[in-house]
Amino acid sequence: MFESLSDRLGAVVGKLRNRGRLSEADVDEILGEIRTALLEADVNVTVVRNVLARIREKAVGVEVSKALDPAQQVVKIVHAELIGLLGGEALKITYASQPPTVVLMAGLQGSGKTTSAAKLASWFKKQGRQPMLVGADLQRPAAVEQLRVLGSQIGVPVFSAPGDPVETARLGLEEARRLGRNVLIVDTAGRLAIDAEMMDQVRRISETVQPRYTFLVVDAMTGQDAVTVAEAFNAMLAIDGVILSKLDGDARGGAALSVKEVIGKPIAFAATGEKLDAFEQFHPDRMAGRILGMGDMLSLIEQAEQVFEKEEAEKTAKKLVSGKFTLDDFLDQLQQLKKMGPLQNVLGMLPGVGAQLKGAEIGDDQVKRTEAIIRSMTPEERENPSIINGSRRTRIAKGSGTQVQDVNRLVKQFGEMQKMMKQFGGRLPSR
Ligand SMILES: Nc1nc2c(ncn2[C@@H]2O[C@H](COP(=O)(O)OP(=O)(O)OP(=O)(O)O)[C@@H](O)[C@H]2O)c(=O)[nH]1
Ligand SMILES: [Mg+2]
């Protein structure tokens, strides 16, 4: 996600890292590069201008600091600006004192409303709520059925009634009250911003169900239109936040990022795949860090925690940090990692790993090979890989149906990983 932006800004930051004093010409050059990076990522022109003006203003006024050299200060300013561009603080979801807390989904045709509605329901479920979905898209014949299928996959009830969408939404609200469901997510028909009748329909649904949150689903692949669309919806509906969908695509994504600056509403959630668990709350600070290539240990730990038992996570973290992490633990982690989603996503969050991963495919095959190699080792070897000499390597390779080079590579990579994990040790947040 945001690959081109990440690549380019990462390069700018990378250059700065090894520099001491910055001349005015240096600052100009850096700003020029940031400008190119933002424009190439399809960030709205006005937004780019505003962002650069703010960076320049702060960069010129930079005070001599003992802690940071000028280059580091510029990185810090750019980081802060990027967080601002992404919305500042993460949107904190609160609940209505009179349940259900109603959430209305709006957005263009095919933007990902229905999928996101289900993902959001699943997210609320993980927060310990009892969500219900309402299919108020009676426009497209298969829309309600699509929602029902998704609902059954996540174990969330789906309500719908034929006839009028506004009436369906009203009945859905009644049903949620009757069943004691405390979150109600209303999926609506896809519409074009220019379609006055459809826009009026979603407005009437909104008046009827009085949502606590109205989320505009924006497809990250939409180009500059995203901004115009967001303005039109916001004028009609008073949007509370944006759900950015399809961030897994290779789109530049910058237009979607501009939405926050233009309508002043935060990005609340990000969807990163068709699967129902490819959905997370949007944390501007973490995303900014990721884009700049600073890595994101926090997101990684949070995701890990959802999968691991918390104690397991703590135990693993301790082992990782103390260097007592063995190949057996590694094997366990591989299994857990598989549950966390594509390895690339997970590893990309580690500082410095994102860039190295470019081009390096980490597929299921490689995971399987790694598992086979570890399983062919004796317990002593797993505990203490340094005893794996030449003849042991040959035996392990034979046992796992791999080449000696594969075994060598794994042992070497594991050693490097141990080293890296020890370095992270000091940075793991304590809880
Ligand atoms: N890759 C990817 N695909 C997504 C994501 N979210 C939705 N999709 C896909 O995009 C397509 C449209 O998604 P829907 O959720 O049906 O979109 P919608 O806004 O409800 O569409 P309408 O109801 O027709 O307006 C589907 O094929 C989804 O599987 C995402 O985050 N990543
Ligand atoms: Mg839909």
What does this structure look like?
By secondary structure, the protein is of the alpha/beta class. The chain folds into three domains: 3-85, SRP54, nucleotide-binding domain (Four Helix Bundle (Hemerythrin (Met), subunit A)), CATH 1.20.120.140; 101-291, P-loop containing nucleotide triphosphate hydrolases (Rossmann fold), CATH 3.40.50; 297-427, Signal recognition particle, SRP54 subunit, M-domain (434 Repressor (Amino-terminal Domain), Orthogonal Bundle). It has 20 helices and eight strands. The protein has helices at 3-17, 24-40, 45-60, 70-85, 113-126, 143-154, 165-179, 196-209, 225-237, 254-263, 284-291, 297-307, 310-322, 327-340, 343-348, 353-357, 364-375, 379-383, 390-400, 404-424; strands at 101-107, 131-136, 158-159, 183-188, 213-219, 241-245, 267-271, 279-281. An eight-stranded mixed sheet has the order 3-2-4-1-5-6-7-8, sandwiched between helices. α1 (3-17) packs antiparallel against α2, α9 packs parallel to α10 and α17 (364-375) packs across α19. The longest helix has 21 residues, at 404-424. The chain is globular, with a radius of gyration of 25 Å. The chain starts with a helix and ends in a 7-residue tail after the last helix. Magnesium ion (MG) binds at residues 113-114, 137, 143, 187, 190.
Quick gist of this model?
The chain is of the alpha/beta class and 431 residues long. Helices cover 58% and strands 10% of the residues. The protein folds into three domains: 3-85, Four Helix Bundle (Hemerythrin (Met), subunit A); 101-291, Rossmann fold; 297-427, 434 Repressor (Amino-terminal Domain) (Orthogonal Bundle).
